[in-house]
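Support reply, case 0932

Customer input (verbatim):
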Amino acid sequence: MTNKKEITAGIIIIGNEVLSGRTKDINTSTLAKWLNSLGIEVKEARVIPDLESIIIETVNNLRKKFDYIFTTGGIGPTHDDITAKSISKAFKKKYMYNKEAYEILLKYYGKKEFNDSRKKMAKMPEDAKLIYNPSSAAPGFMIKNIICLPGVPLILQSMLHNLKKYLKKGSKIFSLSISTQTVESKIANNLEKIQNKYKKIVEIGSYPFFRLGKIGVSVVLRSEKKSKLQSCHKEIIKMLTKKKLRILKGI
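Our regenerated output:
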């Protein structure tokens, strides 16, 4: 077993526009892949509306379960951007202007264009740490184990580098995958036996697909132990070969 503590995370996507289907959620995938590269495992993701009571309840529930909680959305200038205010209430912290954030935004917009709506983006819980934004100036923030990021995917992506310094890294997770032209039922029992052999060492996932006119299954292996991962991978290849199942390349 690894000597490093498992580091876990939850993701909260905040926004009525995501729940209505008008906006596609890209941020969960972006964050999960990035966190995985740091050895931080995403254990849960939720999509919730722009409602203060639900934001407070969800944040308070998940922050006790995981090392980090990432929220996206609701920190812009409009009336329905209520994430920062709601999180202030969740922590019983004063909702106020962050002096540094205020100065960043004032410099970005200029005194003439820095109206009350834009000033709102400088308000956040007292004592919050800033997460700098190289794309549109308005910073995200971190308070305790809650990290609040914007909902616009390209802006969120541009901020990840500035967020890294606040996070503890876990053990690196290695991954391998195998795609085969078959259906899940034909290999389910065999995969279960292999999974039992590598229990708590290698995680095996089975995912059916239909691509390029081919019906198949992608088997995804994940583990902190590179050597065990490779052994498990070889064993699955051997099992598929014995069954005379075609292994697909580039899928």
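We compared this against your earlier run and they match. Two observations from our side: The radius of gyration is 22 Å. The CA atoms of residues 74 and 81 lie 4 Å apart. Please reopen the case if you see a mismatch on your end.
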